[in-house]
Amino acid sequence: MTTATTLATPAMTPLPKLNVVPFVSVDDMMKLVLRVGVERFLTELAAVIEEDFRRWEMFEKCPRIPSHSEEGVIELMPTSDGTLYGFKYVNGHPKNMREGRQTVTAFGVLADVGNGYPMLLSEMTILTALRTAATSALVAKYLARPDARTMAIIGNGAQSEFQAIAFKAICGIDRLRLFDIDRDASEKCRRNLKGHGFEITICASAEEAVEGADIITTVTADKQCATILTDNMVGPGVHINAVGGDCPGKTELHRDILQRSDVFVEYPPQTRIEGEIQQMPADFPVREVWQVMAGRAPGRRSPGDITLFDSVGFAIEDFSALRYVRDKLAETGLFTELDLLADPDEPRDLYGMLLRCKAKL
Predict the structure, then answer these.
(1) Using CA atoms, how far apart are residues 64 and 239, in angstroms rounded to an integer?
(2) What is the pLDDT of residues 334-359, one digit of tens each?
C-alpha cells in the first residue's frame, strides 16, 4: 500500500521509519535529476561508481541471470559489498519500439545485509540510462586521449543524449557527429541537446560519422550480430565506447577491430558471454577497468593506441547508482513511503497482526 502523497521538499527531509521503504518513482527520479542538474548528477554518479570500482574486490560478483525469449530478455543483476545488497530487474525488448514501448525498463532494490530489510525501491529505467552514460564517460576519462573533443554516436535512440551529456561533463566533448538509420532519431537527439553547448553534425552514414572522431560510441538496439563498425573505419588513437552489444548473439563491431585494439571490460566472465569479445577465443586478452582505476593495470599507453571499452553493464554500477540516489533522498525529499514491511508489535505474532486488522474492518 502506498501513502497518498509524495513527501514535500524541504532542505532536509527525514528518511522513512524502519517499517516503511522509500520508493523513488519515475516522476520523483526526473525531479531529482533536474533538481541536482543533469551534468552534476552524471558527474557525481560517476564519482560514486569510481569509488566502488576502486574497492571492486569487496563485492560479490556473478554474471547477470538472464531469461531469454525470441522477443527479448529479462535479467536480474545482484551484488553485495557485505554491508549493502542490491539488485536490478531489467529487460531488453527491441521490438517494443514498434509498439510504442521502451526497449529497456528497470527497477532496483537496495537492502541492509545485517537485517535483510529493503532500504530503497527505485525506478531504474531513467537511472540505468544515467549510470550507463556515467560509466562510459568515466572509463573514457582513463582511456581516451586527453585532447579528445569530437565524438561520433552511432545509434541515436534513448541512450544517446545521456552519453553526449556525460562525455561533455566528464571528458570535455563538445562536438558530436550523429548517425542513425532513422534520421528522425538523429533529429530528435540534436533537438534535445540544443542549448547544451555542442556543435552537432547529422551524418548520412556511419562511415561519415566517424570521420575526424576521437571517440566512437556505438549504441544500437537490434538483438542480433551486426557490423556497425568495420576495421577500415577505425584509425589510430581512437577510443571506442561499444555500448550496444550486451547479450549473447548481439554485437556491433567486426572482430578485426578487436584484434587491433586494447580491450577493456567490466567483469570478464559476463563480458565473454555478452560483449563484443564473445566473437573471440576464450583466452582473448582483456584488461579490467577497475584495475586501471586502482592503478593495477595500464590504460592508454600511447596516443596512437586504439582503446575499446566493451561495455555490457554490470551490477556494481547499479549498486552505485542506487547508493547515490538513496544518499540524495534526505536533502530532496523526492520519494514516497511504501508500506512494504510487516511490523507486528510482537515479531512472532504475524497472524495476530492479521486478526487485529480484521477487527478494524
Answers:
(1) 26
(2) 999 999 988 877 888 999 989 988 88
User: What's the longest Cα–Cα distance across the chain?
Assistant: 76
Known catalytic residue at 246: yes
CA distance 260 to 274: 20
Report the alpha-carbon distance of residue 74 to residue 333 in Å, rounded: 31
Residue found by looking up cell 556491433 in the block = 252
- Would you say 222 and 251 are in contact if contact means Cβ atoms under 8 Å apart? no
Tally: H helices and E strands in the chain? 11, 17
Structural domains for the chain: 145-313 (3.40.50.720)
Which pTM does this prediction carry? 0.92
Say what angle helices 26-36 and 315-332 make with each other, to 10 degrees: 80
Q: Which candidate, 279, 283, 275, places its Cα nearest to that of 310?
A: 275
Residue 17's pLDDT is 64
Select which of 246, 305, 310, 318 is catalytic.
246
